[in-house]
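Running this now, will post back.
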Amino acid sequence: MERTYIMLKPDCVQRGLIGEVVSRIEHKGYKIVEMKMMTLSEKVLREHYAHVADMGFFPELLDYMMSGPVVAMIVEGEGVIAGMRRVMGPTNNFDAAPGTIRGDFACSTSFNIIHGSDSPETAEIEIKRFFG
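Update: finished.
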């Protein structure tokens, strides 16, 4: 059974959308095997977003991700990585179709509700990072 890391970002938590997003994940048939709410440190965020650390938007990204708690989840299911990527929709909310999480709830590319691992290798790294 495949596993992935999913994170509901601060805007999802602040807007009271946790239940709606979790419901969509479960209605798709995926199982949430671990879940916790946490506040992320700058150190963890610098590690998690190291691939964009040299981009101009990085300081704003850090501020946003430290603006409130997130919900971290390990989600399990057949083909869950690709499936969750479809359920979430593209990062750019303008490209996200209605019916996807980002298409229905994201206010901008920056405030886009949710993060999901993009490969089995990334999922393994992110699960270890956030769940030990």
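The longest helix spans residues 120-131. More later if anyone needs it.
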